[in-house]
């Protein structure tokens, strides 16, 4: 069976062709990052219009890459929710119109189920049951996964998602949106240990997360430590560095009589990197600790990581080290399938197709808000 997958829940138009025996045949993607860049976030109306522009050309090029014709398609999977309603409507209307003309069934896929199952596209693939750490731009959840459609929520963020924490911290450091990967790059030049940011709920005794306090802590540091541009009366701009001496102790010459003028303060650029380093450490530390706790609580030894933050290299190396120490294994999607893509939707559609009655009702209803637990099969 050949499944066409269409993802359009947010700011990526993703298309893929997945064959139930031959695997992933082709996938194409258009990211709208550049489009939304100047607004510092996704503008829903612009997103919808851009999906309209790109969906059909991407479908054509996916078919071409796979060497398939439209008539080879046996079913069409599309992201039904959650996401931006206008953006979802574009993907679902294209999916249903196409399915109607081809006389094939449609499968409305839950976007998070797509993320959750995406590591199964890699080899070696994890086997059920496993613990999933879903860390995306909008969600941070730990789940026990016993099979397709058998999900138990173990814990989740009570406020911001991990990706959001990356993005908001990045924004405060002057990086473009979405700043997760950029912040991680900046952090590489950071000084370990110069700043320590809070790790809320690290010892909460449950598997929930909280990340909203982090952006406030980052904001406070930025205000304290980084120069702030001041407009001068003559129209020029000057910068003042504001090193709080207690916080830059590591940089001060030691001992009596250290000459005040010889004190070297880190440059604002270095300070930005140091704050980025501290922010990434704080987020990763909490994620790793809670993931370990989830493995312990469930008694399982396989951890699956999914969602955009799963592309983070520090998170990957820390998880590998600490889960490995407990004789466990960690599974990730390919880097390109961590953030939104069509392959995960086509794949989730294929899994659902095996278990679900084919739907030939081409009325579509998108679900901008949709709890993954509604996807569970009755026991
Ligand atoms: P959701 O799936 O919850 O609706 P989303 O689809 O917007 O949200 P994804 O596409 O899975 O989320 O992931 C995007 C997020 O991943 C952004 O917040 C981005 O900053 C973050 N991200 C991507 N790469 C990295 C990285 N290397 N390090 C940290 N964060 C990253
Ligand atoms: Mg995105
Ligand atoms: Fe997503």
TrEMBL record:
EC number: 2.3.1.234
The organism of origin for this protein: Sideroxydans lithotrophicus (strain ES-1)
InterPro entries reported for this sequence: ATPase_NBD, Gcp-like_dom, KAE1/TsaD, Peptidase_M22_CS, TsaD
Protein's name according to its UniProt entry: tRNA N6-adenosine threonylcarbamoyltransferase
Family: Belongs to the KAE1 / TsaD family.
Name of the gene: tsaD
UniProt KW tRNA processing keyword: yes
One example of a Gene Ontology biological process annotation: tRNA threonylcarbamoyladenosine modification
Its biological purpose: Required for the formation of a threonylcarbamoyl group on adenosine at position 37 (t(6)A37) in tRNAs that read codons beginning with adenine. Is involved in the transfer of the threonylcarbamoyl moiety of threonylcarbamoyl-AMP (TC-AMP) to the N6 group of A37, together with TsaE and TsaB. TsaD likely plays a direct catalytic role in this reaction.
Binding site for substrate: 134-138, 167, 180, 312
EC class name: transferase
Cofactor binding description: Binds 1 Fe(2+) ion per subunit.
GO cellular component entries: cytoplasm
Subcellular location: Cytoplasm
Alphabetized UniProt keyword annotations: Acyltransferase, Cytoplasm, Hydrolase, Iron, Metal-binding, Protease, Transferase, tRNA processing
Cofactor: Fe(2+)
Molecular function GO labels: iron ion binding; peptidase activity; tRNA N(6)-L-threonylcarbamoyladenine synthase activity
Domain (Gcp-like): residue spans on this chain: 24-347
Tree of life domain: Bacteria
Binding-site list for Fe cation: 111, 115, 340
PANTHER family in alphabetical order: TRNA N6-ADENOSINE THREONYLCARBAMOYLTRANSFERASE, TRNA N6-ADENOSINE THREONYLCARBAMOYLTRANSFERASE, MITOCHONDRIAL
Reactions listed under catalytic activity: L-threonylcarbamoyladenylate + adenosine(37) in tRNA = N(6)-L-threonylcarbamoyladenosine(37) in tRNA + AMP + H(+)
NCBIfam families assigned: gcp_kae1 (TIGR00329), T6A_TsaD_YgjD (TIGR03723)
């Amino acid at each position: 069976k050949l499944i066409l997958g269409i993802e359009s829940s947010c700011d990526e138009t993703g298309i893929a062709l997945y064959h139930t025996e031959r695997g992933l045949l082709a996938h194409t993607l258009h990211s709208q990052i550049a489009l939304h860049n100047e607004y510092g976030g996704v503008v829903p109306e612009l997103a919808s219009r851009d999906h309209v522009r790109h969906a059909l050309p991407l479908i054509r090029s996916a078919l071409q890459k796979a060497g398939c014709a439209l008539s080879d398609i046996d079913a069409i999977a599309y992201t039904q929710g959650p996401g931006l309603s206008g953006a979802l409507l574009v993907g679902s209307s294209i999916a249903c119109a196409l399915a109607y003309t081809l006389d094939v069934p449609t499968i409305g896929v839950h976007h998070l189920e797509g993320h959750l199952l995406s590591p199964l596209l890699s080899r070696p693939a994890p086997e059920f049951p496993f613990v999933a750490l879903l860390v995306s731009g909008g969600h941070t959840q730990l789940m026990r996964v016993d099979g397709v459609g058998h999900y138990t929520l173990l814990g989740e963020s009570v406020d911001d998602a991990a990706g959001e924490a990356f993005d908001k911290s990045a924004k405060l450091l002057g990086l473009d949106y979405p700043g997760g990967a950029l912040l991680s790059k900046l952090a590489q030049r950071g000084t370990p240990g110069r700043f320590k940011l809070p790790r809320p709920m690290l010892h909460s005794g449950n598997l929930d997360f909280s990340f909203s306090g982090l952006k406030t802590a980052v904001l406070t540091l930025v205000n304290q430590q980084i120069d702030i541009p001041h407009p001068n009366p003559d129209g020029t701009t000057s910068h003042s560095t504001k090193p709080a001496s207690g916080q830059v102790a590591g940089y001060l010459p030691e001992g009596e009589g250290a000459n005040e003028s010889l004190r070297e303060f880190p440059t604002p650029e270095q300070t930005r990197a140091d704050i980025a380093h501290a922010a990434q450490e704080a987020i990763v530390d909490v994620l790793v600790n809670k993931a370990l706790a989830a493995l312990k609580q469930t008694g399982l030894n396989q951890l699956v990581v999914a969602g955009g933050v799963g592309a983070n290299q520090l998170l990957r190396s820390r998880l590998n080290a600490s889960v490995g120490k407990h004789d466990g294994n960690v599974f990730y999607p390919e880097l390109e399938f961590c953030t939104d893509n069509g392959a995960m939707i086509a794949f989730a559609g294929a899994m659902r197709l095996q278990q679900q009655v084919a739907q030939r009702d081409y009325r579509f209803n998108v679900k901008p808000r949709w709890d993954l637990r509604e996807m569970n099969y009755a026991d």
